[in-house]
Write a structure and sequence with these properties.
By secondary structure, the chain is mainly beta. Helices cover 0% and strands 46% of the residues. The chain is built from no helices and eleven strands. The protein is globular, with a radius of gyration of 14 Å.
Length: 132
């Protein structure tokens, strides 16, 4: 069971990036997946989440209208899949290391959660730097 985050990089303010979170060893049909970010000297914060129960989404206020979370719907493999975070009109405050995470197993694994403690499997993180 693992998550691998990729797609980060250096982008100018106003630019776009698409992050990918590749899941293996479990089915995305049964777990919510979230993106968190942590900037130097700041606490980790949840940026977005995709619920497996009904496809509902969560976004932190500062990224609403600019970020979109989605899932690869090809379903070519049951125990492998990808969740994306499309980030448009990036701002300098978006500079951080971005992590994807899986909701912990249990009766609420399909729903999003509002705390990092509710997620049990984490990707290694991918750095996003927004700078001119």
């Amino acid at each position: 069971v693992q998550l691998q985050a990729s797609g980060g990089g250096l982008v100018q303010p106003g630019g776009s990036l698409r992050l990918s979170c590749t899941a293996s060893g479990f089915s995305l049909d049964y777990y919510a997946i979230a993106w968190f970010r942590q900037a130097p000297g700041k606490e980790r914060e949840e940026v977005s989440c995709l619920a497996a129960s009904d496809g509902s989404t969560y976004y932190i206020d500062s990224v609403k209208g600019r970020f979109t979370i989605s899932r690869d719907e090809s379903r070519s493999t049951v125990f492998r899949g990808t969740v994306y975070l499309q980030m448009n009109n990036l701002k300098s405050e978006g500079t951080a290391k971005y992590y994807c995470a899986r909701k912990s197993p249990g009766p609420e694994s399909l729903q999003c959660g509002d705390s990092a403690s509710l997620f049990d499997v984490w990707g290694q993180g991918t750095q996003v730097t927004v700078s001119s």
